[in-house]
Amino acid sequence: MNNYGWLDSYLLKKAGAERDYKVEWGWHRYLVRGKMFAAVCTPDPKYQPHQGREMVILKCEPLLAELLRAEYPDIVPGFYCDKANWNSVYLNGAVPDQVLKELCDRSYELVFSKLTKKVQREIKEHYGVL
């Protein structure tokens, strides 16, 4: 059961956000100009300790990622990603909505900030974000 029914639309409202499905991985990926800022997946039960729990994977600064994992049992190191820079949040867990929204915003901003200034400007102009 997913406790965050708003998540998909929230991620897609980000300027320039697109969703695709990576068949090989079974992941719904959220991208800005081809760069992933979030992914939703359900790891096979063989991947312990996830036990088949649906999750969203989000980029995060390493120090903050550690602090969040210490505070919330439903935030764990990123599944199949760099454990220092990505967190996974279990979608059947108890992370407050506002915390998850802030993590989504942060992940998007971290990825967006790595795009070229020209691409950032194009996206902002196209979506009326200035």
TrEMBL record:
<dbReference type="InterPro" id="IPR007351">
    <property type="entry name" value="YjbR"/>
</dbReference>
<dbReference type="InterPro" id="IPR038056">
    <property type="entry name" value="YjbR-like_sf"/>
</dbReference>
<dbReference type="Pfam" id="PF04237">
    <property type="entry name" value="YjbR"/>
</dbReference>
<dbReference type="InterPro" id="IPR058532">
    <property type="entry name" value="YjbR/MT2646/Rv2570-like"/>
</dbReference>
<protein>
    <recommendedName>
        <fullName>MmcQ/YjbR family DNA-binding protein</fullName>
    </recommendedName>
</protein>
